[in-house]
Amino acid sequence: MSTNKTDDYWNRSLSTGFSFDDEDDTSKGLFTNSTLTFEANSIESAFSSSPLDTDLYVLPIQTVISKKNLDAVLDDVLQSKPAYREVKETIKRMVLNQPYNLICYHSLMEKEELLDEATTTMDGDVILNVVLFLLNTLNSSNFHRIISKRKEAWHQYLSYLGSRLQTQQLSNTLLSVGSSSEIIEIFYMASVDIPSVEGVLSKLGHFIVEHFGEIVSEREKSVLLDYQNFLKWQKTENSKSQSVTEELTNLCNSTWKSKGADENKIIEFKKLMKISDLQYEWVLLNTLAAAEQWDKILSMFIKSNWLTKKNVIKSVIDVQILLLGLFRHNPPKNVIIELLNCIPDSDISFHLAKQMKCYRFAVDSYINQRDRLGLILYKNQLPAQSEEFFYAESALHSLNVKWKN
Amino acid sequence: MDSKVQKKLISLSEITKAQLSKILNSCSTPKDLIFDRNIIKPFERICGVRWLKEHRIDKIYKLSALPATISNNTQFYFIYTDYRSFQDVVNKIRSYLNVENPDHNKFHVVIIPRVLTSFEYTLEEFGLYEPVIKLIPFQWFPIYLDKSILSLEIPKLFREVYLKKDLSLLPIFAKSLWHLSFVIGKPKFTLVLGQNSNAVLSQTEMYFTELPKTDKHESDFGGLVIIDRNIDYPSCLLTPATYAALINEVYKVNCGFCEYKPHDDEAKYDNKYNPRVAKQPVSFMLDSERDSVYNDIKDRYFTDVTSRLSILTKNLKSENPTSREMALDEIKKYVATQLQAATSKKKFIATHLAAAETIINTLGHRFERQIDTERSILLNKNKGENYAFLEQILTTENDKYICLRLFCLLAITQKLTDNEIWNFLNRFYAEYGYNYGFLRSHLIKCNFLTPDKEISVTNLQNIVTKIPKFTTSNFYATANKLKQIPNNPEKINLKSPTCCSYVYGGSYIPIVTQIAAMLLNAIPLAEIKAKLESLGPLTIKNERESYPLQQKSLLIYVVGGLTYAEVAACNLLEALTGSKIVLLSDRIVTGNDIMEGLLQAPGR
């Protein structure tokens, strides 16, 4: 019954284009326009019962409802929007910390305009505020499309997600625009607080499965694989060192300390992690020196030249760095002198000897160079009454040396 | 600029105190103050504990050492604008709260310099927004650190702005210029260089039009320069050679304080069995006003410092009369007046001798080679040898910042091939940990490296920040145009310098100093523009009515950190031109601070 009545009013209104008076053109237009979209047939099929002629029962609308009240009903049908404020004005209010309202910006166009205006302020707080408003009011594809076109907004949003460690949203956002260059950061963001080697290893495993394809740079990929290898090694060795060279240090240290330990493991680790010779030798030098294994140092860094049959220092470390590096460990003097003797360039060895206070070696160098004046000057720098002092003194008086000056 | 302006700048803290009083007096109940560890030093500079205690303060805590239960006092937390610290504070407060019936108006979180709206959202989500937790933004006035140095003392800005491109804190620069306008007026002539600095300029203009205006009609400064840190990376990458700068390199200066206490259990070796160099304990303020010895040596070339200190010691001895020569009342007078001065001077000399010795012990073994290498990098010579030195210190120094710094310098000057870059990175990861695997991405973001070509797919062109001309153009061409690199560095007089390049051993003059020199010498603006344009977006304001500068004084604002070497170079320029330069920045940094920012994991 009730449906019938409604139907009737519906039809009548449609056909006559009802209005109280002709002032309100828009409402009239609206009603009449609507009729165009409905075909008589479709109405009949859409509504279960056919329209009845109920005109007799219907009162004129003005007797049913006052104009004022009908206006209230109609206002409710087509509400006027909350006061719209110019985008520029709103953004300015945001910058100046005055009250503002974003809910009046509904259309996509307005939202984009809002974001554009926000980015011109270069105020990250304002930009992020608009971004979060868009995030709440747009679906993900629209949201990502809009912010990816505006780099200030994009960075601001990524920073926001990063500071909250929302790695899942971050990777969605990065992938939505195919930004693979930053995808690698997500793994580090997520793994930095994981305390255990196993935890990091499994996180890395997952990351490789999920995102390896998205990383463009082959070299970046191989860094991740190296990392994985290192973590696997650490897991089996039950170690917690921070880096490959630290691991090598610990490995060397424990090997030098326990007699008869297997040194092959060190070499195996060097090969596995492709440790550079410089890094490798530097660790060996320091760990051996700290363990006071001087003989081992000498045998490791001194080789005989097959051609000249003379001993030379063989190392990728610059010879001065090698000696000064060793000197910091206070080695016995004979170790230093043995190494000094293996430096073919006498200028270098002479200079080093002076730096490392190998007085006797330095005095001998002066004698070899037949530099009497140099030796006199140097003698005055030697500790008075020391053995070397007298040695220099006696050399100066010696008749065997043919001084050049 | 005269000493009156200097006194005004010293007194900026009075205004900050007034701001702080307003915050503390907003509630009349007894209060507890809780400070983030990093924020204590600036507060010592601004007001000190005694002043704080005058505001009905009951207890003062460190955030990290808060008790499990708290009194009924109103709580004021002081933290920097940092989401993590904010989270810590919120969690702490939640542990004190009765969730069913939370106290109202008990918890105040003062956030320096700015409360971000996203922080407010977090509180809303927890249902802790006012009146449970009240957030109070507080941007203090620039802090006067020393003669001609002002600092906002806001940490991590370089990382936020240049690496993460997070602009949340950028407006504080404009705000501080608005603040300063009330004290020193608005400098008319303005030169702005760099993308962020241009943003600061437009924000400043907005504040000047929309916010209350200064009643100072005349400015104390002839001009204002605002410049981005990334316009002149070498000034923080190069090894400085002046005393103050080296103090910051070796000890790390915090808010003008240099403090170091060795740990009791200092190991003999580092983690890779390199023998450790012991540092002498020190505690002093880098304050040329109070410490005449520091004033004498702060800008000296380092090798001259120890001999200078020994001269000062001798002078002190000769000033010290023996009591036998003095009458009794003379002795009395001496004890009352000069003895005090002599004693404090003696103390200062001892402190600086200890510090100087530590600098020698820490840097001595590589200082010369480092300076030589940097010199040949700037002269664009011996690329192979320079790279070999880089490889060497990467291994032998066991210091990730030092080697990364040199790498960055090479990357922006002589440029590195793909193989050289990857060789370095792989060794770096092996030496210091694969957990730094994000480093390359960070280096690209800060324009030390150029991005991969392959990645410019889909709509990425819109996202990847356009590489500023700085990295693509030839570093040497612009540096030579600005005459930053002396042709014969070895001829530069380092002991009694007349060229500002002495701060880097004669090899480089900071850009801020060169810009200041051009402006103070009234070089035609067209010429200046031609020299600076290739470095980044350049804006000059009010050129007609205010250039040449009406006063020989400049306020220079560096966005992203300032170095003591730049300060020293500007101090020399001041002396050479009879002008006054005040430098302002978010913080005084070294290259190591920049590197620390690069090496911090994403999301930190």
TrEMBL record, chain A:
It holds the Pfam family Vps16_C. Its main location: cytoplasm. InterPro entries: Spe-39, Vps16_C. It is found in: Cytoplasmic vesicle; Early endosome; Late endosome. One of its GO terms (cellular component) is late endosome. Residues 109-299 form the Vps16 C-terminal domain. Keywords: Cytoplasmic vesicle, Endosome. One of its GO terms (biological process) is vacuolar transport. PANTHER family: DEFECTIVE SPERMATOGENESIS PROTEIN 39, SPERMATOGENESIS-DEFECTIVE PROTEIN 39 HOMOLOG. This is Vacuolar protein sorting-associated protein 16B isoform X1. It comes from Agrilus planipennis.
Automatic annotation (TrEMBL), chain B:
It comes from the Eukaryota. One of its GO terms (biological process) is vesicle-mediated transport. Belongs to the STXBP/unc-18/SEC1 family. This is Vacuolar protein sorting-associated protein 33B. The lineage of its organism: Eukaryota, Metazoa, Ecdysozoa, Arthropoda, Hexapoda.
